[in-house]
Amino acid sequence: MKKLFFAFAFAALTLGMNAQHxxxxxxxxxxxxxDTLRVRYVNDKQMYSTELQxxxxxxxxxxxxxxxxxxxxxxxxxxxxxxxxxxxxVNSSITNLGKSxxxxxDVLKGMIRSIEKQQKDVRGxxxxxxxxxxxxxxxxxxxxxxxxxxxxxxxSRQKExxxxxxxxxxxxxxxxxxxLEIQQKELDxxxxxxxxxxxxxxxxxxxxxxxxxxxxx
Length: 217
Fold this sequence. Notes:
Layout: H1 2-16, H2 34-40, H3 45-123, H4 130-215
């Protein structure tokens, strides 16, 4: 019963959820042109050094933003993993409940057929006391009504299980889209990180050159 409630509750949740998306990468890399800067500060190396240091500060900020984005991506991956695990449990529960319902339906149908056969047989007993025959037929009819109610309930459960499975499938499709966004974000983040590091190395190398110029001035 707990499994059934869990499956239905999760299906309702998945059908009501909006599509989820990874957080966008709003990281702008620091733009600079060393050739332009060299010309601009050709006669003022000290100011050039200050300008380079300003660029370093901006790069430090962008690299910190990249680190935070990696942490964010890690949590998004963990979320996707948790959802996948939950979906696996739900699908397993729904499948097992569906098989159980099918078996119960088959048993109930068999019992109803048996009752109908008994009703037919007892009606054929012409010499049986009418009160005895009618009482037994009524008893069988009562049992058949009870079994039909159970059969209707199980049929309704099968429909609910089908809806629950549809809900899980909707969530799986959303999860697949979410995972594709994660993959793309990881690629973009790696590219940002590589570019940021390469540009930082450019500035460090330029700072060394300017430092030597100032030292030999």
